[in-house]
Amino acid sequence: MADILVIYYSRSGHTKEMAGVVAQGVEQEGLSCEVKDVADVEVEELLAVKGIVIGSPTYYGEAAAPIRKLFDDSVKHHGKLEGKAGGAFTSCGCIGGGNETTILSIINSMLVHGMVVQGTANGGHYGPVAVGAPDDRAKKECTALGRRVAKLAKKLHG
Hints:
Blueprint: E1 4-8, H1 14-28, E2 33-37, E3 51-57, H2 65-73, E4 85-92, H3 99-112, E5 116-117, E6 129-131, H4 136-157
Parallel strand pairs: 1-2, 1-3, 3-4, 4-5, 4-6
Helix pairs in contact: 1-4
């Protein structure tokens, strides 16, 4: 199993593209990374990694239903994700379309699990956001997110 698991849901391909860029950032820090569509993730896989990054398109200011279902299913492992590094990202159809609330909904679930999530003073404070296809700014922030989560995972787990 990889050190970091990047999970995404994507209908248009934008969030999937962002997930790949996040993984590149993780690998730049020397950790292994696996990118998986949420449909291919077994909830038990969350237990085997040092960090988890989750991306979703923004639907009504929330994460997509398959992402929410993963968190619902993860309840049986409550407390077992404590201390793992976490992060989130989203794609949206427009500026102000609920991007930050989507990221925060993912982060809220991570925090309830006891995960450690580090924000940033630069760029998207909570996590990267793409409006439509990820542009250079969004890709730069995705790389930075991957690097940040990898560095945090190394600090937390050696």
